[in-house]
Amino acid sequence: MSALRTSGPARFGQYLALLAYLVFLAFPFLWLVSTAFKPAPELASLHPTWIPKDPTLANFRQAFDEQPLLRAAANSLVAAVSAAVIAVGVATPLAYVTARHRGRLASAASAWVVISQAFPFVLVIIPLFLILKNLHLINSVLGLVMVYVVWSLPFALWMLMGYVRAVPAELEEAAAVDGAGRLRTLVSVTAPLLVPGIVATALFAFVTAWNEFFFALVLLKTPEKQTLPVVLTHFLGAEGVADLGPLAAAAFLATLPSLVVFALLQRRITGGMLAGAVKS
Fold first, then answer.
1. What count of other Cβ atoms lies within 10 Å of the Cβ of residue 109?
2. End-to-end distance of the chain based on CA atoms, in angstroms?
3. How many CA atoms lie less than 13 Å away from 178 in the CB half-sphere?
4. pLDDT in tens, 158-189
5. Of 56, 111, 210, 275, which residue is least crowded by CB atoms under 10 Å?
């Protein structure tokens, strides 16, 4: 046991490294929040400060006046939620079958995950655009949802396969011995233990679709259907000069849904993992 214990200096070094990593992650967001509440004179100052001397909501009012942020946020929400629900709904049964029945299907699924994640967006956008054009889904939120589902499905399948394999097969065998049928076993035994994985996968698919920019920029043409990341680019002038205050305010609002969703689901994810570990 003593060999497994971490010495005092080593533990201090671990905490110090973790603190440095958290600061590295938090710095852009904290600077974004600070910029969002700064008035124009402070934004133009040669000596920027962390805390605004004269906080203002003018940047938020200007952002809403200049761009249709609520409509863009609604488009992003529809696309992200739809993509997450569909991707998880398709990936869950596929992950169960692939994880429980080893063979060519599992190998093909694993290869599909690796290959699909290796393709850059630029490489697939032209054939994807032509396919959606033939289906009359260009400039359509439905077409964008289909793209998001296809793009996030391989990784969602890979994540859920790991959760399925973490559920002991002995639990299903014990339920079968007790007389439970296949469907009853899946619903009563396996499915509750997969809830943390399903929630985590849905969260991944939602955040990926919510933050996606390139596909939305290419596929959505009319301003009424554009998503929030695309609308944020409208705060850049013709010469690439950013309207920094409103841009920071709009970007801050765009990050809130991801943070709120993660905060609400974090305890459920962690609690579900621990419950599954105890049951197994």
1. 18
2. 24
3. 11
4. 888 888 888 887 877 787 777 777 777 777 77
5. 111
